[in-house]
Amino acid sequence: MKILNLYAGIGGNRKLWGDEHEITAVEIDLDIASVYMDYFPKDKMCVGDAHEYLLRHYMDFDFIWSSPPCPSHSRLNTFAVPQFYKEGSGGRELEYPDMKLYEEILLLKHWFKGKYCVENVIPYYTPLIPAVELDRHLFWANFNIGSLNIINKKISHKKADAKYLQEFFGYDLKGYNLKGKKRQILRNCVLPETGQYILDCAMDYIRKTDLTQTTLEL
Hints:
By secondary structure, the protein is of the alpha/beta class. The protein contains 6 helices and 7 strands. The protein has one domain: Rossmann fold (3-Layer(aba) Sandwich), CATH 3.40.50. The protein has a 7-stranded mixed β-sheet with strand order 3-2-1-4-5-7-6, with helices on both faces.
């Protein structure tokens, strides 16, 4: 199966997918992409704009995973108090929600012929398009991923420094030029077990579809 992994980061969602699929990853940060390439050397890595890549190449894949940037949708925005914000104060400046999230959902829903999953944070507003909540994230998909949280592995947010998160996700980031971003990069990871569960759901649907088509042809 040909898989497109957008906004790939260091590959948390992809970690348990194995090497049986033909996977193309897109990540705009070269330093982060270098970590991904070391852990998944058989994948094709494209360093560039994932949003633009999706528009130009969505038709070339069987399954697409997309994790667009989430800060502008995060519930942390409820702590923004724009009238008191001062640059350098440590406060949070209010910003528009990045609508690329919904642009990608709508493009995939109406034009993509394969299976897709778009992941993001639970937002501070009611999602504009209904989604499934699983493992503290929202997922938009054109196959059934259920609503049962089957994941028992949980991050301890009290201990969630970079060292703890490296052990939790199974990454060793020593020696990489990540410029003080290790903790945030790791926090952006989707739990590998969740990524595997969702791919399994998509694969089951595809297998059932293929079986039905084969039966009709006999």
